[in-house]
């Protein structure tokens, strides 16, 4: 079973930057979606950034222009670079991967806390 390790979260002051990482324990074939979600305390989990079909990136309006999603396929790792952080970015962040072979599967990271102080 594929395991994921998320890292890079923590406490940062407003205006600062963080780089979240999500490393898979093995290669996942036929990935068509890689995304980062976040769940603020007491709220639902929402999509923050995604890469579809390996090359199309999308961002939530709340982070557009301040965040960059990327991957290092050689290391089975995805990243979320977040700059100009705001207190509203405080949440638990989850990586999400969807693949289509040998059947549709969805994987979630364990979640990592990001806290932005004002």
Tell me what the structure shows:
The protein is an all-beta fold. Strands 2, 4, 5, 6, 9, 10 and 11 form a seven-stranded mixed beta sheet that branches. A four-stranded antiparallel beta sheet has the order 1-3-8-7, with no helix packed on it. The chain is built from no helices and eleven strands. It is globular and about 45 Å long.
Distance between the termini: 40 Å
Largest sheet: 7 strands, mixed
Secondary structure tally, helices: 0
Helix amount: under 10%
Tell me the radius of gyration: 14 Å
Shape, per Cα inertia axes: globular
What's the mean pLDDT score?
95
Low-confidence stretches: none
Number of strands: 11
Structural class: mainly beta
| Share of residues in strands | over 45%
Order of helices and strands: EEEEEEEEEEE
Helix/strand layout:
Layout: E1 4-7, E2 10-13, E3 18-24, E4 31-39, E5 46-52, E6 56-59, E7 67-72, E8 77-82, E9 91-99, E10 105-108, E11 112-117
Parallel strand pairs: 2-11
Antiparallel strand pairs: 1-3, 3-8, 4-5, 4-9, 5-6, 7-8, 9-10, 9-11
What's a quick, concise take on this entry?
With about 120 residues, the protein is mainly β. Helices cover about 0% and strands about 55% of the residues.
Tags for this entry?
118 residues; mainly beta; seven-stranded mixed β-sheet
